[in-house]
Design brief:
The complex is a heterodimer of chains A (295) and B (615). Chain A is mainly α. In chain A, 74% of the residues lie in helices and 3% in strands. With 615 residues, chain B is α/β, with parallel strands linked by helices. Chain B has three domains: 50-326, ABC transporter involved in vitamin B12 uptake, BtuC, CATH 1.10.3470; 362-442 and 534-615, Rossmann fold (3-Layer(aba) Sandwich), CATH 3.40.50; 456-532, no CATH class. The radius of gyration of chain B is 28 Å and the shape is elongated. Classes of the chains: A mainly alpha (295), B alpha/beta (615).
């Protein structure tokens, strides 16, 4: 029994990462109908910055995180203005997707040049990630608890922003109907940029808290990006809570598949899930199908 | 202006539309280029490796043109096909000890089938999801290769055997380059043949407007899956060559990174032209050769170039060169003078040898609509409409905004989901058929908001409608067999006459997005007429046009409909125009029929006056 709880907890922790990245992807897609392929790399750079500053530049951990978040926000602001904004007026999403691919390639290589390709494992202050509590036979890693708490705090903040602030209202309006929102006098470029920044910050938090869990390799967030995308698909890509739920579900599925299925299958699981969901319920597991093609 | 008296020539000749030929100018240039490299391969053998890589990337680029450039399916999982080629090659050469004659067909076949599977989600999701789904395929593909040790050798990889063809062993280096060049020539020729044939035309159509492509009767679903199959198969040929160049197949080389690089290379080069595949490959493979510094910043440069090109030249380097060429040409003379040189008109294109056989005295297009209903959420847009249209008649469908006219059209053609009711066309029940099959059964339609194919010219729109008349198979098309050319030529003649009839002949080579609105409307009609429909469904053909122009167009449409004895169902707001052309008018209000009769009856009906014409 305890074994299963252990596996479930492991799945939940991975699920947190997928849920956060899924949330970040859905946020931008829902408001601007753009898929940001650079999201994983951007999150990875945030994580690298924070841990690199803390471990190698002797910055206090909290300050390093703060700086990394500021850099993430500012960097995203610049990237959006320079690359995405000029293409929005074309009204076609394909060039924008290609653009984010270019940004991905560019940023991935910047980080590769900066930090090199070797994997490293950064510790966190006080070696929290090495503390394990035993509750009966159940082993609880202290850092995993931090991850869980951070996830809940992040989700609450995002929930607050979306439900209680003007930005959130604007995001909802654009998600509902782009043209109507514009006619109501909501400025598209303002909503878009702050959605991008918010999304990048969520990604940044994920990158930072998961760096000690994973080996910090130049492309360590890519795998989480893929799975975050699977989470978003499970949730139907248009539902924020669906994305989060999809992430947690994927984490659990994965944890139990590794336990019971051969490794080849466990590796292919995300794609298998994507294919099944797309074929059976393209609108996601949690949302109802809506809308029709206008001709 | 040619002489007006000469009635013997066809519209095609008068407009100087070139007929499709077996060889084009591009073929000669391409062949010369490849021949040059072939001859020089031995001289510069120190560059064999780089030349090889360029050729492989060009082949992969050409395969991507099929999937992405033509069909518009952004795939980021293209390397799994390359990987399939590489590892099949490694296994065939070492385990079976067979040569290229076995490797290439098997690699092509396996990757083709794999492509059909990978392409499957493209039926269900939009391009954005597809990009990510294929990205995930690439990502997981490598992991599966890692774990499937028997096939791939796991992390340490698998050696590739000797380079053989029918038992003859070849040395690598320049010989391999020459073999690769021949394969590249074949690949490019095949892809080029698609570009010039009906498959490429259909792919272009579905890229630019899937809705309209379906309405023209194209099997969009099959075309989408097929592009992945063919693209995958061709990429696997690149993979076979890659295996022999590297001599060692390691799974981790075929991951997402390579997938992104091949896409970037093609976009940088230009995704709509074969030359783009070459330029992209040269850019990606020769830049690092320049110096070691470049090598270090390779990815940075590719990413940066892509960002800049996407902003300034979305069609890549080829697009940039073409644009420059155009500018230089324009400097020499007035471009407009040449562009719209009008073409003398025949007395009647309908009498021409190409359109005359379509003439029929047997009226068709009897349409029975029974209890048609469409609901969006709780709103009943169409609420139990029933009517019967006799064959060959012109029927008007009027009603205020939101009365459900277009929705009824969409229900008949299948463009709206969840429509209920029965639709019977010429005695054949079409209610359960998919859109393109309804079109093939004889429904031709136009669109209220002009669903044209940007990037395609006017002639190609007519050819799209004629697609169903071209019976040649796709394998024959790959190799441009004589009957392919024969049917293409015939379709060109018919298309030209049709354009002549609709007064569009002089614009045949114009991209539709460059045409004025009134002409675009006519192109939409031409595409529908070219399908030789039993009944023509016109959705506000006159909207936005001056009445005179609208009447003129309607006259032409009616002439043609009479010529082929097709029925016409027309939605129009301009009541005078409808009353003028129709034998009968059906009036919709709030999704229900409120009047049905001759124009005189309907315009006098009080309910109609209240609901539609106002007080």
């Amino acid at each position: 029994m305890v074994e299963y709880i252990q596996i479930a907890w492991q799945g939940l922790v991975s699920g947190f990462a997928y849920a956060l990245i899924g949330l970040a992807l859905v946020m931008v897609y829902k408001t601007a109908r753009i898929l940001n392929f650079a999201a994983g790399t951007m999150a990875g750079i945030s994580g690298f910055l924070a841990h690199w500053w803390a471990a190698e530049q002797d910055m206090p951990f909290g300050v390093a995180i703060l700086f990394a978040m500021i850099m993430t926000g500012a960097g995203t602001y610049v990237v959006e203005r320079l690359t995405v904004r000029p293409l929005v007026k074309l009204g076609d999403f394909l060039p924008i997707v290609i653009m984010t691919l270019g940004v991905e390639e560019f940023l991935a290589n910047v980080s590769l040049l900066w930090w090199g390709g070797t994997a490293r494992r950064y510790r966190v202050p006080g070696d929290i990630d090495r503390i394990n509590w035993l509750i009966g036979d159940f082993r609880l890693n202290a850092w995993h608890l931090v991850v869980a708490i951070t996830t809940f705090v992040t989700l609450s903040i995002v929930g607050y922003i979306i439900n209680q602030t003007e930005l959130g209202l604007g995001m909802k309006a654009f998600a509902e109907d782009q043209d109507a929102a514009k006619l109501m006098g909501i400025k598209e470029s303002t909503v878009s940029i702050w959605t991008w920044v918010l999304s990048a910050l969520v990604g940044g938090v994920t990158g930072i808290v998961f760096a000690p869990v994973l080996f910090l390799q130049q492309d360590y967030m890519n795998i989480i990006f893929i799975k975050g995308f699977v989470a978003a698909i499970l949730g139907g890509f248009l539902s924020l809570s669906g994305g989060v739920a999809g992430g947690l579900l994927l984490g659990e599925l994965e944890a139990f598949t590794i336990k019971w299925a051969p490794r080849e299958f466990a590796a292919a699981l995300p794609v298998v899930i994507v294919f099944i969901v797309l074929l059976i319920r393209p609108h996601g597991l949690f949302t109802r199908e809506k809308g029709h093609e206008r001709v | 202006m040619s002489d007006l008296t000469d009635n013997s020539t066809t519209a095609l000749e008068r407009a100087k539309i070139p007929l499709p030929k077996f060889l084009k100018k591009n073929h000669y240039f391409g062949f010369l280029g490849i021949l040059l490299v072939y001859l020089l391969a031995g001289t510069y053998s120190e560059y064999s490796q780089t030349i090889m890589n360029t050729i492989i990337f060009a082949i992969i680029g050409a395969s991507l043109i099929v999937v992405f450039g033509m069909a518009g399916q952004l795939t980021l999982g293209h390397t799994i096909f390359v990987a399939a080629g590489v590892f099949l090659s490694a296994n065939i050469t070492t385990v079976w000890t067979r040569g290229l004659e076995t490797e290439i067909p098997i690699a092509f076949g396996v990757a083709f089938l794999l492509g059909l599977i990978v392409g499957f989600p493209s039926l269900r999701v939009n391009e954005l999801y597809l990009a990510l789904a294929t990205f995930a395929v690439a990502f997981v593909g490598v992991q599966v290769l890692f774990e499937w040790k028997q096939f791939s050798g796991g992390g340490s990889g698998k050696p590739v055997g000797k380079l053989e063809l029918f038992g003859y062993e070849f040395s690598r280096g320049p010989t391999l380059v020459r073999i690769a060049l021949i394969l590249m020539l074949i690949t490019f020729w095949v892809v080029g043949n698609y570009q010039d044939g009906r498959t490429g035309r259909s792919w272009n159509a579905l890229r630019t407007s899937e809705t309209a492509a379906r309405a023209a009767g194209l099997p969009v679903a099959w075309l989408k899956i097929l592009c992945f199959g063919i693209g995958g198969g061709l990429a696997a040929i690149g993979g076979v060559l890659y295996a022999h160049t590297l001599r060692y197949a390691i799974p981790e080389n075929y991951g997402v990174a390579l997938s992104i690089i091949v896409v970037l290379a093609l976009i940088i080069g230009g995704k709509h032209r074969l030359m783009g595949a070459v330029l992209g490959a040269v850019f990606v493979k020769w830049l690092p050769e320049l110096s070691r510094d470049v090598q270090e910043y390779e990815g940075l440069i590719y990413g940066g170039t892509l960002i800049i090109l996407t902003l300034i030249a979305p069609d890549g380097l080829v697009g940039m060169f073409e644009w420059l060429g155009e500018r230089i040409k324009n400097l020499k003379g007035d471009p407009q003078a040449e562009r719209f040189s009008s073409v003398a008109k025949e007395t009647s294109p309908l009498e021409s040898q190409f359109l005359a056989p379509l003439s029929s005295s047997d009226p068709k297009g009897s349409l029975i609509v029974r209890d048609a209903a469409v609901a969006f959420g709780g709103v009943k847009a169409v609420d139990g409409v029933s009517f019967e249209i006799p064959a060959g008649g012109v029927t008007g469908l009027i009603g205020s905004n939101g009365a459900g006219k277009t929705t009824l059209f969409n229900a008949i053609t299948g463009h709206v989901k969840g429509a209920t009711g029965q639709f019977i066309l010429d005695g054949e029940e079409i209610s359960q058929k998919p859109i393109h099959n309804r079109a093939l059964s004889g429904l031709g339609r136009t669109f209220q908001n002009l669903n044209l194919h940007d990037d395609l010219n006017v002639l190609e729109h007519a050819l799209l409608g004629l697609d169903r008349n071209m019976k040649y198979g796709r394998i024959a098309e790959s190799f441009r067999m004589p009957w392919v050319l024969r049917e293409e030529k015939k379709a060109h003649y018919v298309a030209a006459e049709l354009l002549d009839h609709m007064d569009l002949l002089e614009y045949w080579n114009e991209k539709v997005e460059d045409l004025p609105y009134g002409l675009q409307k006519r192109v939409d009609v031409v595409r529908a007429l070219a399908t030789n429909p039993s009944i023509l469904l016109l959705d506000e053909p006159a909207a936005g046009l001056p009445t005179a122009e609208a009447l003129e167009m309607m006259k032409k449409v009616q002439e043609y409909a009479n010529h082929i004895s097709a029925g016409v169902l027309i939605i129009e707001h301009n009541v005078e125009l409808v009353a003028d052309v129709s034998d009968r008018i059906i009036v919709l209000d709030a999704g229900k029929t409120i009047a049905d009769g001759t124009p005189e009856e309907v315009t006098r009906n009080e309910q109609v006056i209240a609901a539609y014409l106002g007080t």
